[in-house]
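Hello Y.,

Per our agreement to keep a running log of every chain we model this quarter, I'm adding this entry. I've kept the format consistent with earlier entries: sequence first, then predicted structure.
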Amino acid sequence: MSVPAKKAAEAVAKKVIPAASRAVSASEASSIAPSAKGTEETTMPWNSWLSSFVAKSVGSSNYEKLRSVFLFRPDDVHGLEQIPRPNTKVAITEDGSKTAMFRYPSPGSQEGGKQPSEDVGTMYEDPYKVAYYPRDTRRMHEDPAFPNPELEEIKLALLPEDDEAVKEAKAKFEEGPQSSPGNKGRFATGPSDFDPSGLRASMSTNNEAVAQSLAENMPDHLPMPDWWNKQEELAAWYKENNLPTPLGAIGYGTVPREGRIARW
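Predicted structure for the entry above:
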């Protein structure tokens, strides 16, 4: 495009572009609320001038016939444009009574999303701390390289002490896992103490911190059976009927009738 033509296009664009879509400076950005609706006036008035000229010259019916012959998908509502125009209404029902527009209402004019937060004071109060392995207690001690230390100690205590293999295994057990010691907070950019636990970055993660985190996140609740609060009543019934008192309560009768009927 030549310089005179470019300047002429810019002059036309300045007249056509509405004030609502003008450029906003950094100082104005905090005080200007985003518009809920985009402009419906085109910012490119020179677009489609050829099709308008042809339609006016040959007539609308002949123009539609030409479009169906030479164009691919001439009835495409977006004109095969990848990004829909803000003023294009797309029918979302078969009868066309309801339409939708691109980015309407504007996302910037809507209320922001609400992110659920962890309990205050927990290690995951920081929304950017999304690592799961420090609290994955279900897979705890599944890795052969990091077995349960208490269980391993019991196993070694039951083995003959004079066996050389046992002595070697005990020495290795006392040393503990030697892999993944972490960088102790020393990164390529220098020392950092942004996370004392060392679990925020993969390079500073270490076995001791992971084990401590898993122990802190270990479930401490003990679900009780449904007969726990009435065990004295159950024991009294067996004594009255001169029957041996079993452990717990029998399950028969606790399942609804519909659940005990054969489905076949």
